[in-house]
# Entry
Amino acid sequence: MAVLGAEDRARAAEIMARYPKGRERAAIIPLLYLVQSVEGHVTRDGLRDVAELLGTTTAEVEAVASFYTMFRLRPTGTHLVNVCTNLSCALVGARDVFEAAHDATGAPHGGDVSDDGMFTVHEEECLGACDAAPVVQVDFVNHDKVSPERMREIVDRLRNGEVPEPARGIAPTDFKHASRILAGIDGGYGGPTSEAQGETKREVAQPSGGPPAGEE
Amino acid sequence: MTDKIITANWGNDEIFSLDGYRADGGYEALRTALDMTSADLIDVVKASGLRGRGGAGFPTGVKWSFVPQDTGKPTYAVANFDESEPGTFSNRELIEREPHQFLEGLAIATYAIGSHDAYVYCRGEFLWPDLVLQRAIAEAYDAGIFGESVLGTGYEINVIQHRGAGAYICGEETALLSSLEGYRGQPRLRPPFPAVEGLFGCPTLINNVETLCNVPHIIRNGGGWFAKIGPEKSPGTKIFSVSGKVERPGNYELPMGTALRTLLEEHAGGVRDGKRLKAWTPGGSSTPMLTEEHLDVDLDFESIAAAGSLLGTGAIIVMDESDCIVEATRRLIAFYAHESCGKCTPCREGTWWGARVLERIEAGYGRPEDLPLLEDLGQNMLFRAFCALADGAVSPIQSSLKHFRDEYEAHIAERRCPFTGRGPGVVNETVKAPAGDRGLSEVLG
Amino acid sequence: MSSPAPELVTLTVDGKEVTVPKGTLVIRAAEQLGIEIPRFCDHPFLDPIGACRQCYVEIEGQRKLFTSCTTDVAPGMVVKTQNASAVAKDAQVANLEFLLLNHPLDCPICDRGGECPLQDQALAFGPGESRYTEPKRVYAKPLPLSPLVALDRERCVLCARCTRFCDEISGDRFIELFERSAGERVSIAAGEDFRSPFSGNTVQICPVGALTSTPYRFAARPFDLSSADSVCGHCSSGCNVKVDMRRGEIVRVLARDNVEVNDAWICDKGRYAFRHSDLDTRVTTPLIRDHGLEPASFDEVFGEIARWSKGARVAFITGGRLADEDAYALSKLARTVFASNDMDHRRSFNGGRAEEVAAGVPLWTTYEDVERAPAILVAGVDTEQEVPILHLRIRKAVRRGARVFVIHPRMTRLADVAEHELARPEHQTYVLEQIHEAAEGEESFAGRVASALRAAGGDAVVIAGERLTEHPLAADVALSVANRFGSRFAFVTRRANDRGALRAGVHPSLLPGGRRLSVDDERAVVEAVWGQLPSASAGRSTRQILEASANREIDVLFLIGVDPLRDLPNDALTTRALRNARYKVVQGLELGDLEPYADAFLPATAWPEREGRTTDWEGRPQSFSPVRAPAGVSRPDWQIFVGLAEAMGGSLGFETIDALREEAAALLAPREVPVRSTAWTGTGRPQLAGELTAFTYPLLVDEGRMVEGADELKAALEEEVFVEMHPEDAEKHALHDGDRVRVRTETSEAELPLRVTGDVAKGAVFVPFNQPGFAANRLLGAGFIEPATVEPVRAAEGANVVPTPVEA
# Structure
């Protein structure tokens, strides 16, 4: 069963057109994000769709998909909660946040889905925002300096259908939406250029964690 | 302070947008560059002495000059925005705050090597920074900065943003190319070097984001200007990303060669809660840890090397007296075990083994023979693996054993972690390792 | 071949000097000195990868150790291997410890035990005890990749030889490395099979026991085996193999390296279809028909045959797998003892000039020529299915930059590397003609082929498959194309020794060396050795023999190594021929379907039981040797022919294989076959005989006799019967993929399941030659192509594949 419908196939064609002719295989990562955005994880059928688009075998696609951690080859919750436990975050309490994430979501350790289908918790490596440790990503947007209490609050809000405001920028509505943005076919804020500038400006101008380097 | 170069505008609320960037003279360096020949441009960058900020510190102008422009094949410029080294977060902030500075540098580099196609390999987890960049690229296209005729000169440059999908190894440049071409992100044999046979088999330049951010300033102010900042062999400034146990973690742009003490005490607010510094990494988790003894070491390529470590990405992770070095090392090795691409034996098996031994020691099940074993393990991995990832994994093992062997011995003697108290402690029953280790079950997914 | 002499580099390895071509890897240079550096991922026929890190050497002046499998030699380089460098040796020992961390010590139950590089090295210098005390990585085992290949993942050392083989050599990328870090493993997409006809090569090159062959799993220990070098008898590729026998039974076939022929590879048919000479249908004593077929002595049977043959009209049909010696002896026997030119080894082909050239000129085009060709035109052959190792060599040429063009009615597995022109079978000649006539720079398939061939000059290769000759001029036109552009030319026949039979003159109009019976000068050369020949006029071809036989114009019909009911088109004609010939002599390994017809049976010795030579598609003769004694009282075919000659009161003039070879050598020496213009003067756009043309050819794994007993191979690769047609044709006839359809020809009709696919030419209907449930020779009467109609079968009419003969 094909995962991609006609409209998504047109998107897929656009994605492939970003790369030189004969090198369309380069589009494998965005295409995997695209199929992930349809079913909420990369299914066997999704792998086959990508293989068909690229003219490769399914094994070649699965080999690539299983190499990267951002492709979920197993069923995944509506929201993916990534908790960084690498050193900079661990030094300031990430392990407790990681446990709180499981506790609050009900998602079991090991990357499975919570019983209500809403959450998957993933132990993440360094997310490149160590000034804001401990860092948590919900659907790949950052929440800074997250305490176990704050972790529970974020989960509660997600459970209530809200989208907690991230540290910077916009937040996708869920993991599928995030995958769509990652495929590069959704500007995430209504369009890539001028009309969204005002909004973006405010958000990006917020300090990223500690005091801006220019101010000490 | 006036000596900032690439973060000088971070206080400017408008600088993230094209208008704001242009109001500050943005893209004028590109205009200047487009009037120069490729050879002249490369000479300017060579004269600046700029060295790559991605970790290896290779002279940037020399790298540009390695890319042949007469092969009859297309030439590609690739920017490495796959910032993943634990403790490192400067590229992300450079893009979030002033994406056009980077794009201008990228455009100049692209032109300098006679290329018309620039790829930006973005870290997938950087959903927001990648969107900022996506918007900035669109703005630049709209303004005629990219596209068929860059700034009306008739020279074509296209920028293709390519997101990764979660793999530390893709920061290694040949692995990055594999990934960009749609393969598993495993490193490739060199030679052929990317400069000769890189992306899609064509001559390719790969530069780090911070490196490229310096380029417009060098073009604007001249190579000589840049060369005079900081030490002779490592000129310019460097963004130091400070994290861990400090009062004010963050990115600090300082001249190369600033002493750690200055950075820590004058800028980052000192060790948190007035505690004592125990250990720090000068360039991310892959660089050997240094200690309190090294507080006065200058932060530049040569001085750090003399102290027995590496400047790497300039990511300083600070640990204080209450932090357990064995646990810190365990966590870092778990990272390498998770990120090893699997291609070569010493890295794949060595990181796996190291992680298991360290888990055992931290859990209170260490044995005296584990310490020589860890030393051996490090020796058997160092410079033996396919790429430098394994060497990075060896750094914390060897340096922690060198500086903090007593902590390991305490774990083993007490059969518990002296800091957390976890472990069986000294009991009379046979010590048996627990089955099923947390971190490693994750490794196997 | 005029490639410039390579630049040479001199270096020392362990103090010994060696000079090798520039670009040689250190590990290869060491091999030339007899110094073996341990390795797992390195393989001489795969690209260097440097993954296992076992082959570390010290290079003087360098701080780090180098992997010798990825390092090119340099002038004056001083290399120290584990034999001369303690550092290198330590690194190798340490690496071995890493490799063994997660490797199970299950050697006693592992197929590789006793011939395992990892085991050998662990024994040679591995640590006696492991410092690794944690639990090892485990996986569910074994993972069946296909009915042929099983994977025990915990044994795998992740050298990637298997996946690189699939990527670089076969292009069948069914297995890949999945995941990463310590979780990295070889795997296959869920729900899919390792459906590659080359899968067994991955087992052979696995340096541990991770990949195993199901037919050999737990079957033997290396020290239980006796072996012989042989040549594969399945097709004309000529692969060098090693046959392993345990207690008299063949249990395994492996590829032997030969860079001139098969590199290090064989196909799965060659590897796994080895049981047919051990089947219980094998007959190993002479038989003679009394009431039933009764055992007899050779002399009794010879006498009976001679009695029937004296003064009678005798004809000979052979298969394509007689050894060179057999073919020569038969060619002489038929003509000098039985005074008959009615003799043929071909099924329904007539290669004209192309055949003469193939018979007269061995090694005009070789594997090496194909590998080095910048441009290759392949016409009328599905190389993967018919000559698999030629297929691999064409792919290798592509990796060296060759442009490949294919003219065929059906897409081949060169699809990913070649431009295909799907042409109806009878149109292939026309496409060839267009290439011949193409104007400079013409923007068309023909134009592109022409300019590629022209640009490649003498290095281009034109390959014409035997099936082209369904059109009487096609092979000649292909030869003309080669001549026009100065390309090399190969007429490629499919069966193992079709070429040997052609060379020897098992042919109605060609004598040994491709000399024409009808040309006095050429005939005289043969008469000088053999004595006078019966007639200068051509004998009957296979088809003509069958027709004559059906018309009671043949008295004695010899069927040698052939089962015409299975191997030849038109089983209705064959049946009539068998009924109406007065006396039928069957010679071979078994009677099979011929049992009701045979009047005499002569048991032949199978290849694994005798010595002999066979000639591959290049014209290269290669020797095979016995792995065991002849079964029963069977005799090599050529000895049977010697006996028959004596019984007829004549003599072949040789009694030993050496004497035979000496005589044959004189007639089979390569000779000039002058380039003559062919009869062809332009065929023009072909007239279509019918709206649709059915065509057939044997797929690699089918119901052929040689594959009998290879159950795992069939389970892995054999397809059920089907018929293929193009979507436009299907639409025209309101047919859908998966429909049952009735295919009708002049002679017969059959109900078959339809596949609608753009991979077959418009107007062409493909029916595989002999898949389970249906053999195309029950449908096609004329040969391998024939006009046909296809119509839907109404649902009510049942689902059986039942051919309904129109005439008996």
Chain B touches chain C through 38 residues (CB under 8 Å). The first helix of chain B runs from residue 18 to 23.
